[in-house]
Amino acid sequence: MPDKTIAAEAARRRTFAIISHPDAGKTTVTEKLLLFGGAIQLAGTVKGRKSSRHATSDWMEMEKERGISVTSSVMQFAYRDRMVNLLDTPGHADFSEDTYRTLTAVDSALMVIDAAKGVEERTIKLMEVCRLRTTPIMTFMNKLDREGRDPMDLMDEVERILRMRCAPVTWPIGMGKRFRGVFNLLDDRVHLFGAQHAGGIEAGETIEGIDNPRLDEALGEQAEELRDEVELVREAGNEFDREAYLAGELTPVFFGSAVNNFGLQELLDRFVEHAPPPQPRAAETRTVAPEETPLTGFVFKIQANMDPNHRDRIAFMRVCSGAFERGMKVRHARIGKDVKIANAITFLASDREHVETAYPGDIIGLHNHGTIRIGDTFTQGESLKFEGIPNFAPELFRRAVLKDPMRMKALQKGLVELCEEGASQLFRPLMGNDLIVGAVGALQFDVVAHRLRTEYGVDCQFEPVNVSTARWVYSDDPRQLARFQERQQENLAEDVSGALAYIAPSRVNLQLTEERWPDIEFRATREH
Ligand code: GDP
């Protein structure tokens, strides 16, 4: 049954993530957006995370980064009559799966581009991910206070490489030393850039109307240049079209300078107005509408809390429908058990509070003592499973080798728990006692080894193993599957969830095996 309060609360939620190439300005934009939401304290916290980014080989730094990122990985702030949830995506390429799953939990994305560099490699990758779910995207061209590329060229590049039409909402007045502000094409208003913009919330003179004589006073010859450019842009460019934006075909473009907190208010104002509220979400049996009364949600991320005194993990759940109330009982749909959630965490940017109520689009942190996995669905009794949160086949494999054989139990426990977080995956071959860890990036092995040592007291090494790729195997024909399992035992393993995977010693071997077993499906992803 639809509920009025829930529908209204859902309608004012805006849940999004920022996609960008490292150094384009994601952290700076995040910080400034939080300022608009009145969360000044946290702006410092976001900054703190930065120091560690270039020292990813330094374990202490990594721990610090992870510790802080529990609190800053979801930031909620109120702006106007909206409630905005900004989900952080990890910066390092090795954590790309985590990023992918985070993008399954948002309704839209903000793409930040360095105007001097244009479309960079990581942005392209993230864009591909957004495209899988046709996530609507707004674009912020950053660092206009520096010499950069021609704005027209930048938009051309987005159109060409990212295959998305660009509709400029603001237009820059000069750049670098000549950067004087932006013109808002929708409001016919100029916003002047000045030295006073460093720090605080955006201020500065606004001039109504591009033909206003005040513009000539303020800008001199640049006023005429602007008029010419705007005429060109209006003729040659696309107009903002909300339907096309929501369909992921067009991106509204804003120009500015994040570090000077300039141009972001224009962006935020349009964002809260046009970005989509929580959408209906597909589950295996039906589609769930946000305004439905019973609570539903899914877990998209699990993260260890680095506080060594409370060694529990936090499961991040996105609310899809209904309202979450503190102390409420929910059904853990996969294991069919009811659990009471007494102290869920909310991520209100001003401080990390315990949740009272959360609505569709909100993220809550559940304390996980090992029973929650990525992809798990929570309901109020219904047996339901949300779709679309995949596991990717890892590309690197190593065997965990223990220094002290007496610590086998602890090693197994540690690996299972760490792999539940999803950044690395555990495979247990059907034959022998090996524990094989698969990851998408080499850094993961160092992280796992380090955490096994500090969190589980287990000294282990990762050694090369003769596995080059993995595929989850399925078949509609149970007899074929049984025959396959019998014949191929030496190359089969179970993952953490007990699903069967073919671990191939080489790509060629995989190809030959696929040809030899046409009734068996070899999948590169597994739905959680
Ligand atoms: P991230 O790696 O995407 O999170 O990027 P950061 O927000 O850390 O920014 C990378 C660098 O660019 C930092 O040194 C910022 O101070 C700088 N930066 C961010 N925004 C601007 C801007 O508008 N103008 C200039 N000149 N530098 C900026």
From TrEMBL:
GTP binds at residues 20-27, 88-92, 142-145. Increases the formation of ribosomal termination complexes and stimulates activities of RF-1 and RF-2. It binds guanine nucleotides and has strong preference for UGA stop codons. It may interact directly with the ribosome. The stimulation of RF-1 and RF-2 is significantly reduced by GTP and GDP, but not by GMP. Its main location: cytoplasm. Residues 216-243 form a coiled coil. Keywords: Coiled coil, Cytoplasm, GTP-binding, Nucleotide-binding, Protein biosynthesis. Residues 11-279 form the Tr-type G domain. CDD domains: RF3, RF3_II, RF3_III. It is found in: Cytoplasm. The keyword Cytoplasm applies. This is Peptide chain release factor 3. PROSITE patterns: G_TR_1 (PS00301), G_TR_2 (PS51722). Gene3D superfamilies: P-loop containing nucleotide triphosphate hydrolases, Peptide chain release factor 3, domain III. Belongs to the TRAFAC class translation factor GTPase superfamily. Classic translation factor GTPase family. PrfC subfamily. InterPro entries: EF-G-like_DII, EFG_III/V, G_TR_CS, P-loop_NTPase, PrfC, RF3_C, RF3_dom_3_sf, RF3_GTP-bd. The keyword Protein biosynthesis applies. It comes from Spiribacter roseus.
